Amino acid sequence: MAKDKGLKPGQTAPKSGQYVQVGPRGGQGNEVTVTKGEPMPPTPKPGMSYDLTDPTKNKSGQGK
After folding, report:
1. Which domain holds residue 20?
2. Which of 5, 39, 54, 57 could form a disulfide with 18 if both were Cys (CB 3.0 to 4.6 A apart)?
3. Long-range contacts at 57-61 (CB < 8 A, ≥ 24 apart)
């Protein structure tokens, strides 16, 4: 599993960007914007996680 998939609420975001809520059976929910290093927000239902769908297209967080 990639480190930007299956993130649970409260885990630290590895990259800035748009994350989609994913249900326990794979259904997708709303998208949220999260900044690298910030905790993932709560989900509306237990068992949901987040997958990165659209990483931020700037150089923040790349160590430059």
Report:
1. 1-54
2. 54
3. 60/16, 60/36, 61/15, 61/16, 61/36, 61/37
Assessment of whether the complete model's pTM goes beyond 0.90: no
- Asked whether residue 28 is assigned to any structural domain, the reply reads yes
Q: Report d(CA 21, CA 18) in Å as an integer.
A: 10
HEC string of the chain equals CCCCCCECCCCECCCCEEEEEECCCCCEEEEEEECCCCECCCCCCCCCEEEEEEECCCCCCCCC
Total number of domains in the chain? 1
Q: What is the structure's pLDDT at 64?
A: 44
Residue 60 lies in a domain: no
Average pLDDT over residues 34-40: 95
Please give the share of the chain, as a percent, with pLDDT higher than 90.
Answer: 75
